[in-house]
């Protein structure tokens, strides 16, 4: 339900406008040194903030305002031993469950009061109410993308474990709308934002250094677990690897040498490259205008929406990839 | 590992050239009437045999020769009660695990003897040997697509349960190579077969009648479970639903009304449509020629390969969709 | 690892002398009203404090000093709606994961500094160090019985859900040492405490109102799940139900009518009664004296040990029983 | 439901009077040599037949008549390679799921026809019917102890894996009724059998060679998993280890040095000894007489009941212990 994986079991909790979001990561071996700076950087990428603290084009105001400070509750101890020459910011895992929370400092449930009796197009508001009989109208509750901050923390711990084994994960945005030149992504997004509209994007992710043998031959194929992890991210509409959908027009003789890094569900020792697509944000001024929601401009100023969520999904893709891998290796 | 799902837990077993393949389906409620004819029809679709017993274009000889007769070992009893007016071919479930086997009548391990020290391009031969330290060279062992026959049996039971709840699943081939006109698929496949080559295809699947509320909001999103189920099928290289990859060029204002039947990971009561792509078969005469394998023609005559596996994957896609759904509902 | 159950999945976290202990309870349906007073009462029973705030005989000083205040992080909202006439202390569940923490206010890691290079008899110190390679010497870390406070919180929510279904769970101490008269338990425990020694006890638990049909016939028998839940409590050395060990001397003709409330692994609609035994606390002044640990008196004054842990295990037995049941029903 | 464990996942299937019982054991590493003779011996112990093929005192006729021949369907290959000097009866695992069946040769559903509308005291007949809505009246269906034959096969494979790691499991009957002298067990059982009655027994099991570190500190304690495994055996009413229930009368100072092989839920490197109690068989001539079932003698002649099931439970206790251990190590 809210747990991903069984070997490195990650349980996520917290409502977008409740007291805190957070997670418990169980199964991390004792003695792993966690670099907290890396976690902070990943959270900033997800917030849509550059190293200089400036917002990336098209990012919602709330993301920037929320500092996303992690409070560590259990499973780690600070090590200040000079002999070990470990920096103060390092944590060492105890082998017990790592629990952490991120307080919702900018939670403004009152901003969503008008939504109490309104369902937003392209949102899960209505299905939630029908499924649970009760509705947390405050910014989507669990459905909010804010929940992905906890994934990024857990995924970054997983990435640090993988790095020790020589495995790295790198994702980047390769397409925004029809644009495939990364230097023009910022302009493209800005254009949609000015129109009160939104646009989707494609992210490509490469796994390097994964040894032969990860994945199982029948149901638990490596690609199936990667697809499960990636498709669990909000707004993701598709996953492909290797020759993907584009390969359909090519005969076997032309593309059979392309393994995509996986054979029979098991990693073959070469790089694995997959792509995933994120749809445009549903809640836009334009969408509200069509719905003839009164004072939508005011509401959008209060609201917290992105012109291109794919931008901020990049570290989440890496995080979920890392969590999938540590559960399979 | 070899089990799919936890509520309707399906465990698959059997090597392609061993004594039998089969499965155990646990969690099926007592009292479900199973129509055996439907199972036979689905197995024929997977074998690539039409209702008249004729092979579909481009299908390997073994598939046609194997009758795929199901032997029921447990979990069901035949009901011949005339009062209930149930046909002899009907089984009724007991609520206990349903175990079944399909004997490998056409198993010819000796045909694969030449493979003992050869690794086929595009096959999992090499990774298996490295992962397990032992290699079952007989036709791919577990990696063989023959294993999907057991999935079709289990999936067909799941489909019959879903049908009782008003839920139907329908998949079909919508593209072969560049061809999107189904009346021309047969010719297209025949052309690649004559060239000693192979070609991929795209399958589209629609779920109708699924009530609101299937799927969970965070990790266990409906689309994540569908992707996991579908990507676990041999040769599948991609999964998309709703606006999919094509939607990346469209602004939010143009496509936000398209839910694809799922909102926030939960079914919204409308039809769900997804697509998946299957790569061309790797083992082709052309591939063998390039590898300069001596007497490849002779071997291919003995070998058992398809020109377009997507054809036969259609019932497997339906089966895995059904198994994913019964585990989530 | 640190998760119990899959339908009502309870994940426990926190070290005894770290920042906090806590838990995440996932799978609780939306709309359940939680009475916080009941949770406070159960935590007091576990602390060994009576309704008047006085310590029960033989209870360690730390338990009494720790107020065990629960902070609710997610999954619940306070309802103050006067129309519904719900008290302020009521929480209503959202259907999302319920996360809570209990801060370790009386954590004194320095009290355990002397243990850094000492292993206590009857404690898990040594096996932990060998298993994890790292040791949290601060009061047993995860091995501390303090962890059971989180179980009591989660179990009390489960009990409130069960109560709505007419199911109640009641446990009590029925034997301390050789004493079976409850009015004499306090004196018996006091005597062992004065001797610097400790003593075990037997707890009996009765489940009332459980409808026919809970439990599965083969591995997931109701008694197997109850045994698993109860044997996971620190210091528990045995579990029996129905005729138990004592029944071995009776012929079938004398005891076959005693079902113990379970037939073939499934509840039969009658009351279920089971018993479990708790060993004496290992860390006692007497034990330390034997080990010739210097200044043991001083250390024991600082230390935090009980003369009869069975006393405080009673609400934990109820909590684990409740968690086992909500996962099976 | 019908699966035990997740690392060595054992799925059991088959009705007592259906076509076959059997199992699938998934997770066994490739390359394990399985001695089939040992499996046959264990099945004979469970049947209640000595090495000479003679029945043990008090065993039901069916057990003796059923040869319990195992047919291996998948996951193993016979190795006859003379270079490796492996006997013909050896199987080698492939790393794929091991499926096997035991045909019910002596299945006589007609013998149970009279039970169609009768519920036996001390049996699960009635709860099954209420739980499943359908009843397989043929000898208890899944509730029959015949299902334990599949456990013995899987457990014996687990024992052979453990033996390679230097771990051995040995169980024996230590008490029958009030009798604790094993040389008198046979006479004691015979006496109850002559009376048309039945009697319970206590089995003690010792695990030797288990290295430090098996088990997890919180819920997945080694003793909790052993208790779960053992309490899942038909007719088992209690489990205890180390000082057990008897230890309740002893002060901590007298018994704290007795670890029972487990500290804090984790094996401590010393032998682990546990005991479990089995109730008398419910279906006895005496019980039938009391129920005033007509012609009970005739029925009992046809029926298949034991005077002391504890005798035959010994190899089942070893099997379940082995399955618990391979899933935890």
Short synopsis of the structure:
The first copy, chain A, has 329 residues and is of the alpha+beta class. Helices cover 30% and strands 21% of the residues of chain A. The first copy, chain A, has one domain (3-328): Chorismate synthase AroC (Chorismate synthase, AroC fold).
Overview of the structural elements:
Four copies of one chain form a homotetramer. With 329 residues, chain A is an alpha+beta fold. Chain A has one domain: Chorismate synthase AroC (Chorismate synthase, AroC fold, 4-Layer Sandwich). In chain A, the strands form four sheets. In chain A, strands 1-2-3-8-5 form a five-stranded antiparallel beta sheet. In chain A, a hairpin with a 4-residue loop joins β1 and β2. Chain A has helices at 36-47, 61-65, 125-132, 148-164, 185-194, 222-231, 252-255, 285-290, 296-302, 309-328, and strands spanning 3-4, 9-13, 20-26, 33-35, 70-74, 76-78, 90-93, 98-103, 168-176, 201-208, 236-241, 262-263, 266-267, 272-278. Helices cover 30% and strands 21% of the residues of chain A. The model of chain A has no long low-confidence stretch (mean pLDDT 86). Chain A has ten helices and 14 strands. In chain A, α1 crosses α10 (309-328), α4 (148-164) packs across α10 (309-328) and α6 runs antiparallel to α10. The longest helix of chain A has 20 residues, at 309-328. The interface between A and D is small, with 3 and 3 residues. β11 (236-241) of chain C pairs antiparallel with β11 of chain D.
